Structure formats: C-alpha cells, structure tokens
Amino acid sequence: MTHERPAHRWIRWPNDPDRPRFGYGADYNPEQWPREVWEEDLRLMEEAGVTIVSLGIFSWARIQTGPDTWDFSWLDELMDRLHESGIAVDLATATTSPPPWLVTAHPEVLPVSHSGRTVWPGSRQHWRPTSPVFREHALRLTRALAERYGRHPALAAWHVSNELGCHNLYDYSDDAAAAFRAWLRRRYGDLDTLNEAWGTAFWSQHYTDWNQILPPRAAAFIPNPTQDLDFTRFSNDALLEHLRAERDLLRRITPEIPVTTNFMVNHHTRDLDYVRWAHEVDFVANDHYVRLDETGRDELSFSANLTSGLARGRPWFLMEHSTSAVNWKPVNLAKREGQLHRDSLLHLAHGADAVCFFQWRQSRAGAEKYHSAMVPHAGPDSRVFRDVVELGRLLREDLAEVAGSERLPARAAVVFDYQSWRAVERPSLPSEEIDYHREALEWYQTFLDLGIRADIVPVDGGWDEYDLVVAPLLHMVPGHLADRVNRYADRGGHLVTTYFSGTVDADDHVYLGGHPGAFRDLLGIRVEEFSPLPEGVAVPLDTGGSGDLWTEEATVTGRDVQTLARYGDGPLRGRPALTLRRIPGGGTASYTTTRLSARARRGFLLRITDEAGVGSELPEPLRGCVELAVRTAEGAEYWFLSNRTDEGVVLADLPGTPLTGTAGAHLPPDGVAVLRVERP
Ligand code: GAL
Fold first, then answer.
1. Which residue's CA is the closest to the ligand 1 atom numbered 2?
2. Domain 23-170+241-402 maps to which CATH number in 3.40.50.1000, 3.30.230.10, 3.20.20.80, 3.40.50.300?
3. 371 Cα–ligand 1 center, Å
4. S-S: 282 plus which of 218, 258, 300, 644, CB 3.0-4.6 Å?
5. What element of type H or E holds 44?
6. How much is the pLDDT for 1?
7. CATH code for the structural domain at 412-612
8. What is the dihedral of CA 362, 363, 364, 365, to 10 degrees?
9. What are the sequence ranges of the domains in the chain?
C-alpha cells in the first residue's frame, strides 16, 4: 500500500485558485494581542507579501470557554479581515492544547509518564491520544469549527491539531494499556503468536491472558525489545488514528477543503513513521528548526530532501521554521545575516511550495517570548522584518514561475528507514553509540561533497528506480524487503549497505547462520561476530582513512567478491572493511563493516558512483562547495545552487539564466542562487 504515491490535493487558494503561487506566512496567534495590533498586523502582512497564515492553533480556551459556551466573534472578525486583505487561512482545528476547564473536569485525559507520573497541565499537548473523553471533546470542537467556517471564502486548508506527538507520543496510562492490547490483538490474533513474536520464553515473560499485557512501563531492568518496539509502533498508530478521526470529520463536512497536519521531519523525531502519515493527508506539511552548528546546513537539506521523499516529489508545505533564534535550547543562537533567506530557499529547492514561520509576531509573554518571529520585539524597523519583506518579494516576483514545479529525481538515493532507525537505537544492543540519522546524513554529505545529487527516499518509496542506492544501517529487514533488495541488485542496481544491516526480521528476531543474515548471499560475506569499538577509538584502513564505532569480523564467502579495503591494524587487521560483489546482471552489492571516516567514505563512494555511471552535474570547481537541487516544470528546470562553505564561490560555466543572483557572480557564504535552464 505504502508503495503507491500518496494522493495529493494542494491548498485551495481563495482568489484566482488556478494561478500557481508560493504560500508565504506564519502561525498567526492574534489572541495574544489587543485588537489595535490586528490592524497593524494586516498592514505589515501586506507589506511582507504574506499569502497564508495558520490560525487558531492554540485557541481552544479562547473559542470554547466552557463545556457549552463558545466565543467565535473574534475569529469571525479575523477570518473576514484576513480575507479582505487577500490572505488565505490554514485554519487549525485548535485541539492541540486542551483548556483548563476541560482537564479540571476530566483529569482522566492527562497522559501518564513511563514512571507512572501524571503529566500535568500548565504547558501544552497534555492529552492522551487514546482517551475516549479527549477524542469526544476534540471532535466536538472540530465539528463546531468546520460547520462555522467550512464555507468561509478565506479557508484554504485544515490544519489538524499541531505537531501530533511532539510531547504526548508516549503515554503509559490505563487508556493506553487497553488500546495497546486491542492493537496487539489486531496485529497478532492470538496469544501464541504474540508470545512467539515477543520471545517471551525469555525471562519468564510468557502471557496466558491479554489482560496481563502492559505498556513497557518503568521496570527493573531492560524491557522486552519487541514489546518496546511494538509500543512505539502502537503509539505512532494511536496518533495516526487521532489524525484520521479529525480528518474524516472534516472531510464529511467540507469535502472540498484539503486537510493536513504538520510533521516534524528532523534528526530526533524517530518514532513517528511519516511514510505512513504522508498517505493520510492531502498534502505533506513539515516543521523544521535548523541546527546552528557545522552540520546544520546539510541537515536542513537532508530533512527537506526527505520531506520531498515523503511527498513523493510533489510540492509540500513548510509550515514552520524560524526567522532567527528559537527558545528551547540551552543557548539560543540568533541566525547570521543571510541565513533566513538561505534556509527558506533550501526548503524551496527541495520542493516546498509554501514557506512559513513560527510565528508572525513575537510574543510579549509566555514560554516563547524569546522565540524569533516575522515581526520581532523591535518592530518592523529591524533587520529581521526587512529580510522578511525581501523574501516575500523574491517569492512573489523573481521566483514566481517556480511555484508548482516538482523535484527532478536524482540518479542516486539514500534510503531512509524509520523502522531500522527505531530498532538500532535501543538498550541491549552491542553498542548504544549507534546514531542512525547521523549515519544517513554522513552518506548524504559525502554525495554533497562530491557534487552529486542524491534523493533521500523512504524505504517504502520508489528507490528501485535509482541507479545507485545507499541504504545505511538497514537493520530490520522483513522478508519482502530482503526480496526487493535482491531484485534491485539482480536487475542491475548498485547497492551499498553498512554494518549492522540485514540483522533482524520485523519482530526483531536475529537471522541465524551469520550476519548480515538477510543479505549474506547477496553480499557474499559472512560475519561471525560484531566488535563495536569504544568511544574515541578509530582503526586505520589499508587504503587510507579509518573506521570507528563498530567493526565486524567478516569472511568473504561468495564468488565475484572483491575486498576494497581491509583493517590496517588492531585485532581485525587484514579482515575486510569494505567489500563489493559483482552481480551477473551488471549490478553490484557493497558492504562496509565499520563506520567509515569522511575520507574513506569519499574514496569508496567515488569508486561506486563510477561503477554506476553516476556523476556530478556541476562544473569541477563547484563540486562540494555548492549544493545543487533541481526542480522541474514543463520546458524548464530550476537549478538551486547553495553555498556550503564559509567563503564566497564564483558561479561560472553553468547553464541557464539567473532568476536570483547572477551567474558568473560571487555567491556569498549562505548564498543561494536560482537559475532557469530551458529544456526542450
Ligand atoms: C513547534 C511548535 C510551535 C512552536 C515552535 C517553536 O514545535 O509547533 O507551536 O512552539 O515549535 O520553535
């Protein structure tokens, strides 16, 4: 099912609906401000070229003031005023943060932590995804909003809740326990099957009645890993069910209005399986907050690229990012000059057709008063607001024709697997130092360093069409996936995978007979033992560069397997670090038994890209310094060139004509240039 491209229905623009244009705007929280400020908001939005705002996200307490008392007057007025100003509304169902009256009357909606503590109100998102009481109230509010504003001309899309699972993904309450059991009954059918899947012969965990089963609450020692994994899957599904409940109600009342919810595709949201979520919304929306460190730019590119992968190359909506600092890190750095533009344009480069911020006006009070916004505390006479106005102009004028274009698939892909991500970062593994996201990002960075475009494609997506596929840490491999990987290589594809791949099935049971069980024959190697390395220890490779984190004692077992690099030192000296097997159909299957250093990975990928005939589209001097991302529409490609260095880069020998910046010109650090390249 997930192999199919998800359905796609873009926002319904109120005016001139067929004219492609970029969405530009923010979360708008006018309830934090007196009415006089609203007038200034509308004036400044017009100046900034705002086309859409997300309204009402945290407004439950303001809309429904008690169980049977409602105040829509302020929202009525704002919907009308925004429409008069030509601004579309992505209207929230407002269900993300239940009001005090509700949780006082129904404390049974409050989540319970791993150690059995109640998660009290006083912040936000304090509700159990499985609470029938919460669901009933949330749907009542959703219905009230849909019935009142469903025909309002400003309404362009529905915004279900907000960042589902940001704080309440894991709830260990009795409601959750009951729903978990029901979920397990659907998954396994009977207790024998569950006992087998969970390996309950171990530590006397055998179940004889469904009621004995609990969520993995804080226990004496390491929890049952399959129970733990199933609980992450269940928790994901519980939130998905909430999304579906609100969405289905909205679709019944307003079938013509698209529905979305904002994902959090980033380096720490591991346990939400957005591949499946992408099939439940009319268009994909994402929130992303850039890391202000040396990998931040590339991580942003990775996240935007993966979001495009979830959207299967179609336009998606950047629902939130920041104009400058956030407020939730120990130290919140301000963005450098130029970074606001760079971040926005990088998302655009990877297919975003709407660029929005959290939030429109910086709060005066509350937990986010030091979080940046489009209108900062300093007011419109500020660098941030001037940048915001300039970005609006760029989207409206210089880049207008790019709106609606799709991403041009690359020939290489990094395969991303949420299930393996969950499975390799658990207790009781050979090493707790494995970092799935970092590993995937590092392979992507090597492609960027070589100037070769690579798409990030979810494992359930269409990676089979790429000439070269890197599937790092592809650890959890159900039988159908093993077959698919084998077919890919048999048909001439070039596959690269890494240490600790092919190790377990979907129940987290180890494939026996030697690692990497699911890929042993395909790769033509056999590993008897994993030998993770202590932190800070690196082993040199005989071809240059090194490996750290992990090593494996591998033996070549297949014919046509070449050892490309060996360990140059230590107990595994002389053993394969990198292997390549040639497959009769012309494909190759490669494996690395360690986490390669940047140098070793670069050398290896150069070799493999060469095998696969996949090269850079950039002139030699730009490779590595500049990232190229390409969008395509009828008759044209749009080349986005983003400077990855701290120095200026001269753009020369490129095709096309500039839409922004100038070809042959100096691209400053953090600069992004866009070229239009005609295609017959
Ligand atoms: C998001 C959230 C917003 C705001 C923002 C701050 O997680 O959806 O409401 O809190 O972070 O960075």
1. 163
2. 3.20.20.80
3. 9
4. 258
5. helix 35-48
6. 41
7. 3.40.50.880
8. -150
9. 23-170+241-402, 412-612, 621-678
Q: What pTM was computed for the model? A: 0.97
320 is catalytic: yes
| Residues 505-556: tens digit of each pLDDT | 999 999 999 999 999 999 999 999 999 999 999 999 999 999 999 999 999 9
Q: Which band of pLDDT confidence, cut at 50, 70 and 90, is reported for residue 34?
A: very high
Q: Is residue 163 flagged as an active site residue?
A: yes
Question: Exactly one of 163, 246, 552, 627 is catalytic; which is it?
Answer: 163
Per 3-state DSSP, the chain is made up of helix, strand and coil in percentages (nearest 5) of 35, 20, 45
* Rounded Cα gap, residues 414 and 468, in angstroms: 9
| Mean pLDDT confidence for 314-334 | 96
Instruction: Output the residue whose Cα is nearest ligand 1's atom 4.
Output: 358
Write down the architecture of domain 621-678 according to CATH: Sandwich (2.60)
Which atom of ligand 1 lies nearest, measured to the CA of 163? Answer: 8
Mean pLDDT taken over the chain: 96
603 in Cβ contact with 544 (< 8 Å): yes
Identify the band that residue 489 occupies on the pLDDT scale cut at 50, 70 and 90. Answer: very high
Edge to edge, the sheet with strand 576-582 lists: 454-458, 412-416, 468-471, 494-498, 588-592, 576-582, 561-566
pLDDT-based confidence at residue 662 (cuts at 50, 70, 90): low
| Gap from CA of 28 to ligand 1 centroid (Å) | 12
Q: Ligand 1 pocket: which residues have CB below 6 Å?
A: 162-163, 166, 287, 289, 320, 326, 358, 368, 371
**Which tokens sit at 210?**
């469904």
